[in-house]
Design a protein that fits this description.
Elements (H helix, E strand, L loop, with lengths): L5 E6 L2 E6 H5 L7 E4 L2 E7 L13 H18 L7 E8 L5 H8 L9 E6 L9 E8 L4
Helix pairs in contact: 2-3
């Protein structure tokens, strides 16, 4: 998994979450950015430099990418049910039903607004890339 731990960086009005992999390899992105009550979740895959997703099933890859999204959301002090919008990019639309079976297990009640987009290719041979926006619920 790509996000075993996240580091935090602060600016006056934002908090930046960065995965260990992105930090170690000095990659030019944050895994998430918090502004106010809103978390912007970067495009997340279950694969990275030096990984080979051909050794895992489509279902396992869907779980891994959703677990990585969940890790960012929880690091921001939120839950998956705080996600209001998600975009899923997929290299084979035949995997739609498999992804949905996994996806459903990450939410309780209402689902976020979502786009499921077919693409030709994703970085590092990933089958899925997920990005989204979460807004901290006021309880």
């Amino acid at each position: 998994m790509l996000l075993p731990s996240l580091s935090l960086a602060q600016s006056p009005d934002r908090t930046y979450l960065k995965s260990r992999l992105a930090t170690e390899q000095n990659l030019p992105f944050s895994s998430g950015v918090i502004k106010g009550d809103t978390l912007y979740i970067a495009g997340t895959t279950a694969t990275g430099p030096g990984t080979d997703n051909r050794t895992i099933s489509v279902e396992d890859e869907a779980h891994q990418v959703m677990n990585d999204v969940k890790r960012v959301v929880e690091q921001a002090g939120m839950t998956m049910d705080d996600i209001v919008s998600i975009q899923v990019f997929c290299t084979n639309l035949a995997n739609y039903d498999t992804f949905n079976r996994v996806y459903r297990t990450y939410f309780h009640g209402h689902y976020p607004a979502r786009a499921f987009v077919g693409v030709n290719q994703l970085l590092f041979g990933a089958r899925f890339e997920v990005m989204g926006i979460a807004v901290k619920s006021r309880k």
